[in-house]
Structures are given as C-alpha cells and as structure tokens.
C-alpha cells in the first residue's frame, strides 16, 4: 500500500506527499489535475490562491489563521 502523508502547515496549506502516481486529485466535475512529476504538492486552505486547488502563498499575504490542532470530542456530547 502506498504511503500518503498529509501535513497541516501552521496558518498555511495542506502539504501532500506520496509516491508519484499514487494519488488522483480531481475537481468537482471529476476532471483530474495533472500531478506528473509532483511527488509532493500543497493544497490551498485559505481560499485566496489564484492557482486553486494548489497553494500560491497568498495565505501569508492575507494573514490567514488556521485551526491546526485536532479538537477532541467531549464525552457525553453528540
């Protein structure tokens, strides 16, 4: 099984690392993005990139603040 690593960067993008050809990234219409030669890429999380879904560094210019830490579900709540 291929190893895929997704890292949440502080106040930045999702960094995806996987062996080339092991990930399919498609848009809402099912059209695939060409990931040839990209064993790692960053996905926009701030919504400001002009190269969506890929990060172009806009997050640092607009002061994006992300929630990086996982939140534990409270016991007894649904």
Give the topology:
Elements: E1 5-8, E2 14-17, E3 40-43, H1 58-62
Antiparallel strand pairs: 1-2, 2-3
Number of helices: 1
Percent range of helical residues? under 10%
The largest pleated sheet is described as: 3 strands, antiparallel
CATH topology: Ribosomal Protein L9, domain 1
The number of E-state strands comes to 3
Instruction: Supply the CATH architecture.
Output: 3-Layer(aba) Sandwich
Name the helix and strand elements from N-terminus to C-terminus, one letter apiece. EEEH
N-to-C terminal Cα separation, in Å? 34 Å
Shape: globular
CATH homologous superfamily assignment: CDGSH iron-sulfur domain, mitoNEET-type
Low-confidence stretches: none
The CATH class turns out to be: Alpha Beta
**For the largest beta sheet, what order do the strands appear in spatially?**
1-2-3
Task: Tag the structure with descriptive keywords.
mainly beta, Ribosomal Protein L9, domain 1, 3-stranded antiparallel beta sheet
Description of the structure:
By secondary structure, the chain is mostly beta strands. The chain has a single domain (1-68), classed as CDGSH iron-sulfur domain, mitoNEET-type (Ribosomal Protein L9, domain 1). It is 6% helix and 15% strand. The chain is built from 1 helix and 3 strands; from the N terminus they run βββα. It has one helix at residues 58-62; strands at residues 5-8, 14-17, 40-43. It has a 3-stranded antiparallel sheet, with no helix packed on it. β1 (5-8) and β2 (14-17) form a beta hairpin. The chain is globular and about 40 Å long. The mean pLDDT is 89.
